[in-house]
Amino acid sequence: DQDSKVNTDIITLTRFLTEKQHDLGTHATGDFTLLCHALQFSFKSIAYYIRRATLINLIGLAGSSNKTGDDQKKLDVIGDEIFINTMRGCGKVKVLVSEEQEEAIIFPGDGKYAVVCDPIDGSSNLDAGVSVGTIFGIFRLADDAVGDAKDLLLPGTELVASGFTMYGASANLVLTMKGGAVNGFTLDNALGEFILSHPNMRIPKKRSIYSVNEGNTMYWDDACKAYFESLKNPKEENAKPYSARYIGSMVADAYRTLCYGGIFAYPADKKSKKGKLRILYECAPMAMIMENAGGQAVTSQMQRMMDVVPEHIHDRSGIFMGSYDEVEKVKQVYANFG
Ligand code: AHG
Ligand code: MN
Ligand code: MN
Ligand code: MN
């Protein structure tokens, strides 16, 4: 019968990219596909180390901190090194920006792409075995690009691709191309291949789930306080309050929001005036995923996240992202506060 039929027509990430390259038309020289092969090798390697971290003494602090003031975990440093080596090794990348590197890294050669990455997102959760992930974005350098950090001070609308890999029960890669769909791949550890498991992911238009660190409430502006209050103590007749879900790894909160719907927020506040999350390698790639899945992403000033141009490579922004209707509600409350 049908459901016992073995699927022998498996779509691996490699096959998906080859087919996509065909869609991208003749100008797709295969460079992007080779870059993505290097990307997926990074995810497989990072997944390998994360799963064994406790066994090979790779949890805990590295004893250093990064430009944005985070204490670096050993796995932050390992993930960063893996990413640098694979991006250099593929020969297609000219500039790499990483959360863990103060300056942009310029590779020799004539790579046409710039990559931004958060090698391990949610690393404060690592030692507790909570899901963490890798976030990435890919820009195609302009022909007259000089190949330095300034080439990367671009809005999310310039991204040619973005996504993340969440190292949870299995490794889940979520990938989207400019103006394209969002596709989910699951790493089959036996084959060592990412298999297309969630074609054309769409975020539900609404969902009564909110995801924010309420420990920051006293630092929020009045509009932010009023918005979350309206979810927790709705005034409408017979309205039910929202559920709270906050994991503390953006990748895990984003993946749940993409699958179930709802709103994720890390607002700018009195403590973090520009917000905590970094524009280039956290906010913009996630905004592109949410928009391409039918959702939205805005800043704490209610500006479209994809339009924001970072002032420097580690610049930050407040962010509200998720279901289309849920972000509309945020805009409504902020509009009432003028
Ligand atoms: P990273 O581990 O890459 O530095 O990112 C951590 C971020 C993000 O993953 C998460 O949404 C946020 O920090 C959680 O911050 P709080 O602990 O302040 O809520
Ligand atoms: Mn960090
Ligand atoms: Mn992060
Ligand atoms: Mn990180």
From TrEMBL:
<dbReference type="Pfam" id="PF18913">
    <property type="entry name" value="FBPase_C"/>
</dbReference>
<dbReference type="GO" id="GO:0030388">
    <property type="term" value="P:fructose 1,6-bisphosphate metabolic process"/>
</dbReference>
<comment type="similarity">
    <text>Belongs to the FBPase class 1 family.</text>
</comment>
<dbReference type="GO" id="GO:0006094">
    <property type="term" value="P:gluconeogenesis"/>
</dbReference>
<dbReference type="GO" id="GO:0005986">
    <property type="term" value="P:sucrose biosynthetic process"/>
</dbReference>
<keyword id="KW-0460">Magnesium</keyword>
<dbReference type="GO" id="GO:0042132">
    <property type="term" value="F:fructose 1,6-bisphosphate 1-phosphatase activity"/>
</dbReference>
<dbReference type="InterPro" id="IPR028343">
    <property type="entry name" value="FBPtase"/>
</dbReference>
<keyword id="KW-0119">Carbohydrate metabolism</keyword>
<comment type="subunit">
    <text>Homotetramer.</text>
</comment>
<dbReference type="InterPro" id="IPR000146">
    <property type="entry name" value="FBPase_class-1"/>
</dbReference>
<dbReference type="InterPro" id="IPR033391">
    <property type="entry name" value="FBPase_N"/>
</dbReference>
<dbReference type="InterPro" id="IPR044015">
    <property type="entry name" value="FBPase_C_dom"/>
</dbReference>
<dbReference type="GO" id="GO:0006000">
    <property type="term" value="P:fructose metabolic process"/>
</dbReference>
<dbReference type="GO" id="GO:0046872">
    <property type="term" value="F:metal ion binding"/>
</dbReference>
<dbReference type="InterPro" id="IPR020548">
    <property type="entry name" value="Fructose_bisphosphatase_AS"/>
</dbReference>
<feature type="domain" description="Fructose-1-6-bisphosphatase class 1 C-terminal">
    <location>
        <begin position="203"/>
        <end position="334"/>
    </location>
</feature>
<dbReference type="GO" id="GO:0005829">
    <property type="term" value="C:cytosol"/>
</dbReference>
<protein>
    <recommendedName>
        <fullName>Fructose-1,6-bisphosphatase</fullName>
        <ecNumber>3.1.3.11</ecNumber>
    </recommendedName>
</protein>
<comment type="pathway">
    <text>Carbohydrate biosynthesis.</text>
</comment>
<dbReference type="GO" id="GO:0006002">
    <property type="term" value="P:fructose 6-phosphate metabolic process"/>
</dbReference>
<keyword id="KW-0479">Metal-binding</keyword>
<dbReference type="Pfam" id="PF00316">
    <property type="entry name" value="FBPase"/>
</dbReference>
<keyword id="KW-0378">Hydrolase</keyword>
<feature type="domain" description="Fructose-1-6-bisphosphatase class I N-terminal">
    <location>
        <begin position="11"/>
        <end position="199"/>
    </location>
</feature>
